[in-house]
Structure formats: structure tokens, C-alpha cells
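Morning F.,

Quick status update on the modeling queue. The single chain you submitted on Monday has been processed. Sequence for confirmation:
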Amino acid sequence: MIEMTRFDFALLSLAILLLGISFGLLIAGHDQFMPSLLGSLVLSAWFELRGNKHRRENSNG
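C-alpha cells below.
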């Protein structure tokens, strides 16, 4: 299990919020959904990579 700090939890929450906003903009037919979608994907990818790093460190040691 990944030990989440407050910063990690805030980033994950922000990524989920941005993803919801981007899909809302997409459904509403606005063109501004792409920057919001990209932002949420970058945040969630960073969070996942950080989690993988912690898993590797814990499995080696």
C-alpha cells in the first residue's frame, strides 16, 4: 500500500476534479476541455509514477 501524504492526496483529488470538469466541458460542447483533460492526465500519471517508485523501493528493501 502506498503511504499517501497530504500533498499526494491533494494532487489526486485535483486530478479527479479536473477530469470531471473536462468531461463536463466536453459534454456541454465547449472547446476548452482539452487543456483541462491534459492537466488531469499529467497529474494522475505523475501520481502513478510516484506510486510505482515507492512500490519498487518497498519490494527491494
